[in-house]
Amino acid sequence: MTPSAEKSARPWRLATRLIRGVTGVVIGCLAIVALMTAGFTKYEITERLDDSLQEVGERLQFAVLALNQQGPGHDVAHLSDIKPTSLAYQITDTAGHVLLRSSNAPATRFTVPLSSGFYMLPQFRVYVTPAAQVDRFILVGEPRLHRTQATHKAILIAVLPIIGSVPCIWLLVIWIVRRGLRPLVRLQDEIRERGSGNLKPVPELALPVELSTIQVAVNSLLERLQKALSAERAFAANAAHELRNPIAALLAQAQMLRSIALRKASDAVTPKPENDTAQETANIPQRLDALISQIHRLSRTVEKLLQLSRAVAGTALRRDRFDLLPVLHVVADELDRPDHASPRIVIETGDLTHLDVLGDLDAAGILFRNLLENALRHSPQGSAVQVHVSTNAAVPPCCVAEAPAAAGQAQAVEQSTCVTIQNTCPPLAPDLLTRLTDPFVRGNASTEGSGLGLAIARTIARQMAIRMDLFSPIPGQDDGFMVQLTFQKAPPRA
């Protein structure tokens, strides 16, 4: 496995990723804000200090007046409490001679041009302005140390609260993320408690919209899983019951034949009366017939179980184009030979010569075989099973079912093909009719059968997107049973 694959396979926590991501974004934004604040503060401090230099230069006009009254000189103004960060000033003439200066100003003139403006020297920031008197200039210098200290202090005061808020923001993000993920943790705990012994739906947890959809999906999955497990248990129990009866009958008949064979062997040594021997010999064909009948029954049950297993495994999920009419006729001919004097399966197709639908051809054959076998098995002797095939141009009224179609099945009659299979029988109870497609449920317990035919048909119909509706009695009649199939018509050939 590559290092990148190992890295992607490492487990990670949503809360940690959210905390790191949100905190990183917030800190990055704060860093940008701090840099912008520092730049703006530096600009403002420079502006304010330059305004102070200009204001001091304007106020020194009185010193120029005093020099004019006293005459030129090289006076030094000694002021108290002079610090290295205090302002220094000079008053000069046009020749550059210093006429008056503060004690912290250099004895020689600041090496700057004698024109109005601000100038930067290694030690001072100098402002030059002409005096009101001719041939006089005022030079005011601010030590750069003072400007640097003032700028740093202002930036620190402006940025320090931003930096100090980072731990508070980090703690708030942790609290908000954990509080926001608390419903997810509760949902996680509820799902973790579910298992084969606990498939109850997840209760209402006051979840947000994003998690409520997950709760609905989990509850739907749990419901389907519970139904599947229940159906599997019922199927296993019913299958064992259905297989146990013919196996027990086979065992009993085999034991009787064995006992007869042992008695015949003993009769070879000790002869018995001829009447007893003749009676036992006459019973052998009957017992063999019963044995063969039970074997056939067991074979049919096993065949139905295999068909149901194939249907559940998704054998009918293909979407091929095929003609429905040949499939229906072939299955009908196998179950009811066409040379019979009175056919038991009557197919009405009208003027249709072909009928293309979408689905799986083999699965459609299994579907019709089970439905026709079920109709023949439950029809009284002398009655025929009626099969009616129609397109949207001649759909009988019974094809407009009242029950809603299942998801994924054809619902538009104008795009469908309707096949109805009817047989004569006493009407079924409504509750039995709703359970008739469950495995091992029979409409008539006295009739021979496995109870799997309609279950197989229902499974194939769902996979082939066929709408399958059951009616008993037949609409418009007092008795009978009808299966209605609505197929999706294949699109026209290009």
From TrEMBL:
UniProt topology in membrane: Multi-pass membrane protein
MF GO annotations: kinase activity
EC number(s) per entry: 2.7.13.3
Cellular compartment(s): Membrane
Keyword field: ATP-binding, Kinase, Membrane, Nucleotide-binding, Phosphoprotein, Transferase, Transmembrane, Transmembrane helix, Two-component regulatory system
All residue ranges annotated as the HAMP domain in the record: 178-230
Keyword presence, ATP-binding: yes
Domain Histidine kinase: 238-491
InterPro entries: HAMP_dom, HATPase_C_sf, HATPase_dom, His_kinase_dom, HisK_dim/P_dom, HisK_dim/P_sf, TCS_sensor_his_kinase
Catalytic reaction annotation: ATP + protein L-histidine = ADP + protein N-phospho-L-histidine
UniProt entry tagged with the keyword Kinase: yes
Transmembrane segments: 18-40, 154-177
Annotated protein name in UniProt: histidine kinase
Annotated organism of origin: Acetobacter malorum DSM 14337
